[in-house]
Structures are given as C-alpha cells and as structure tokens.
Design a protein that fits this description.
By secondary structure, the chain is of the alpha/beta class. 25% of the residues lie in helices and 27% in strands. Strands 5-4-3-2-1-15 form a six-stranded mixed beta sheet. The chain has a six-stranded mixed beta sheet with strand order 6-7-8-10-13-14, with helices on one face. The N and C termini lie far apart (48 Å).
C-alpha cells in the first residue's frame, strides 16, 4: 500500500490551511498514494494552548461544509483519506474526531479521541468530551484502519484493542511538541519516548504504524508560555518497529511511503504474541491501580 503523509505548518487562516492541504493531497495522489493521512486538528492552529469559549467557533458539524470539502478531494483523487476535525456534535458537546473518507467520497467512519489530556498548553479537557465510539477499526476498501488520535498513542491498551478487532494498520494523527523552556536534553528524551512507544505498539501487535505530526512554532495567545514548537518527526514503522520513513523535525513534508501489507502476516507467524497472551490472568488491567 502506498501511504501519503502531510506534515504541515498552520496559520490562523483556516481556509488557507485547508486549501494547502487539498493541493498536497492531490500531489500525493498524483504520485500514487492510495491512503493519505493528515495531522491532528489540521484546519487551524492548535487552539488548546488556552481555555477560551471563543474557540468553540472553530468546530464543525459532521457531516457538514468542511467534510464536504474533504469528501470531494477524496473522490476526485480516488483515495482513502484520514482527517482530524473539531466536531460540534450538539450545543455544548464537542469531540476531537478523526473522520475517514472512502475513495468514492463517502464517510467510511469516524473515531472520537478517547484519552483527553489536560496539561499546561494542552488544555484539551476544556474543549473535548471523551470519545464514546470505542476502539473500533474503520473498514475501507484498503483494509481495516485502526485510527487513534495523539494522546491515545501512549496507551498500549488502545493499540491492542484495535489489533484484537482486526485492524490492518494503526494510524495516529498528532499534535505534539516542546515547551521551549525545557532543556535540549529533556526535549530529546520526550521525542525519543514518543517514537519508541509507538514503535512498541507496532512490535507488540505485528502491525504497521503511521504517525503524522504537525510542525513549526505556534505562540501561546495568553503569553503565559513561550508557545509550542511542534517537533514534526512524522514516521511510518513496519510490523517489527522498523522505520520505513522518518520526517525532519523542522520542515513541512509531503511524502509517499510504500508499506508491504503482507509482511504483518509473516511477522505474526514468527512472533505469535496474540497466541501466547494469558487472557485468563489479565483481570487487573481494568483497575485504576492494584493496591498491594
């Protein structure tokens, strides 16, 4: 499968961000991409650096005018497209939602982000209700896509449940970066941990992982921090965690990466982790903490 990834710098102009994405999607399709994956909340700046009710104006209904745009480009290019939108579900009810479009432009399915962070400069709990669709892969003409979003990538349970439901790929639209006051050594540790944990999901489940992050500096509108330097580093890993492609930390990327989908079958034969799981001994995994 030929997979296109778009790592982009964003501006305050949502229409400009979308039009640049559309042009890049078409370019990747012209290079043979069958599946294109976009970064988290790709239509706007990462507005969760502050808590402001005005930012709810950025949300969109699904389906709606914005999904019509991505539906049209998916159909025109004949690709499966993974997007990441700020969903307005109802008055006062919003989600961080990945929407997958089939090659004919129809909505194949959506996933609402389950794990919602609440950290300095990542005030997502103010905006997003935790997802209620579960860890359910989305069926497409290219296979079953295990789509998760950003903070979900730190949780092996999420990746495992997608794998147990037959996902062929794990896909993570992402928005993560450095707070500039961190030391260079700490910044490196954070980025390496982020890459390592997701490569671990590939290994543990015998599945390719596609992670697409945003890039560039976005200032903190409140001025309380120095903003976020999004670290790019989008990557595609194979089912043994092997790096098939790694993007730079500081520049935009449009890249087509070829993934051998048959390899997952062979890897799972060599390393039958699913066979050897002790499901009779895992009751404690659903506890918040196991007191001694």
């Amino acid at each position: 499968m030929k997979i296109g990834i778009i790592q982009q710098r964003n501006t305050e102009n949502c229409d400009d961000n979308r039009q640049r994405l559309v042009a890049k999607i078409k370019n990747l399709a012209s290079q043979g991409a069958q599946l294109v994956v976009l970064q988290e909340l790709h239509d706007s700046l990462y507005f969760c650096q502050v808590e402001s009710v005005d930012n709810f104006d950025l949300a969109t209904s699904i389906p709606g005018e914005v999904t019509d745009l991505y539906s049209q480009v998916a159909k025109e290019c004949g690709i499966v497209l993974v997007t990441s939108l700020f969903e307005r579900r109802s008055v006062g009810l919003y989600h961080n939602t990945a929407v997958v479009f089939e090659a004919d432009g129809t909505i194949a399915g959506k996933y609402r982000k389950m794990h919602i962070p609440d950290d300095p400069a990542y005030y997502e709990k103010f905006y997003f209700t935790p997802g209620d669709l579960g860890f359910q892969p989305i069926d497409t003409s290219l296979g079953r896509l295990g789509v998760l979003v950003c903070w979900d990538q730190w949780y092996p349970e999420a990746a495992r449940l997608m794998a147990l439901r037959g996902a062929d790929l794990l896909i993570y639209p992402t928005a993560i970066g450095f707070e500039s006051s961190d030391t260079p050594a700490e910044q490196l540790r954070q980025r390496d941990a982020w890459i390592t944990v997701q490569r671990g999901h590939a290994v543990a489940n015998g599945l390719p992982v596609i992670t697409v992050n945003r890039v560039g500096h976005e200032p903190d509108p409140s001025g309380q921090t120095r903003g976020i330097q999004f670290w790019g580093s989008s990557f595609v890993a194979g089912p043994q965690g092997e790096m098939l492609y790694s993007a730079p930390t500081d520049s935009e990327v449009e890249q087509v990466v070829e993934v051998n989908m048959a390899r997952s079958e062979n890897v799972r034969r060599w390393w039958p982790f699913l066979r050897d799981r002790r499901i009779d001994q895992y009751d404690g995994i659903t506890s918040r903490f196991l007191d001694q």
